[in-house]
Automatic annotation (TrEMBL):
GO terms for biological process: DNA recombination; DNA repair. The keyword tRNA-binding does not apply. This is DNA ligase (ATP). Residues 105-227 form the ATP-dependent DNA ligase family profile domain. InterPro entries: Adenylation_LigC-like (IPR044119), ATP-dep_DNA_ligase (IPR050191), DNA_ligase_ATP-dep_C (IPR012309), DNA_ligase_ATP-dep_cent (IPR012310), DNA_ligase_ATP-dep_CS (IPR016059), NA-bd_OB-fold (IPR012340), OBF_LigC-like (IPR044117). It comes from Streptomyces liliifuscus. One of its GO terms (molecular function) is DNA ligase (ATP) activity.
Amino acid sequence: MDLPVMPPVKPMLAKSVVRIPPDMHYEAKWDGFRAIVFRDGDEIEIGSRSTKSLVRYFPELVEALRERLPERCVVDGEIVIAREGRLDFDALTERIHPAASRVKTLSERNPASFVAFDLLALADESLLDVPLSDRRALLVAALSGVTAPVHVAPATTDIEVAQRWFEQYEGAGLDGVVAKPLTLPYRRDERLMYKIKHERTADVVVAGYRLHKSGPVVGSLLLGLYDAHGALQHVGVCAAFTMKRREELITELEPLRMESAAGHPWAAWTQDAAHESARMPGAPSRWTGKKDLSWLPLRPELVCEVAYEHMENGERFRHTARFRRWRPDRTPESCTYAQLEEPVGYDLADILGPRD
């Protein structure tokens, strides 16, 4: 492979802001795997956000990209999987599997798509120093007439359209809106774009915690919600605390600390089979490898309010939640899925068109 921009490349990133800024280039924020695709003739490389190769996990995309991208190019975008008209992040994580046979089966059952939104190189020219508005024009021209499963991300410079996307597209599983200055060059691994994401709050049960990697202080709180059958389901964690606050939490939570998980709603967390019928902490993770997922159980009596962006498949927080306050006025049993706001449905095909 011999391109003007060579792998590995860490992608340009976005920082969070509360409101959509004016006078910019706007796109939907895709909830998938960020990917930079390098094509040089028959050679294809797909680099992840951390620069690891994703080629072996998405064999169906390799061939599609080879057929649909320009002969020599570097394209920034997102790998997504759609099921029942909306993005499904869990289906993506299932692909990170050591067995090639399993990956092949999943690629046939739930094929992935690639949504292109930036062009870093074309033919023999690096576009890293070219303004975004010009890169976008070159991307649209280079992928003119491209067919699924490769797509060009819809974009606009109309802030009212961007606001409408922000309100509507969540129903298709999208994550918000990204705003990019029109004159912005491509800068690797720098947060020069802006992301505007949905934020909601929920009252959740604190049912355990993990220790921080630095020592005997709280690393993250384990959060739960009761389902319609009265079972406490693990829905995520909140973890952004100062070191002083982590130390204080150890003392505050000590009265609720259980000697063992016996009698706890998640007592069976060490058994693989238990994770098939319920959500509990410690599920095997392809991302963390041998990372210690052990946790310390608490009597599920404490309630806190957290901020979250959206739920993955209506079951868990897609990202780490943010602690807001304790809720001594709420009973744990009142913390159910029923309190969660459901976005209005929106068919992904209305954004990208049908897959076939």
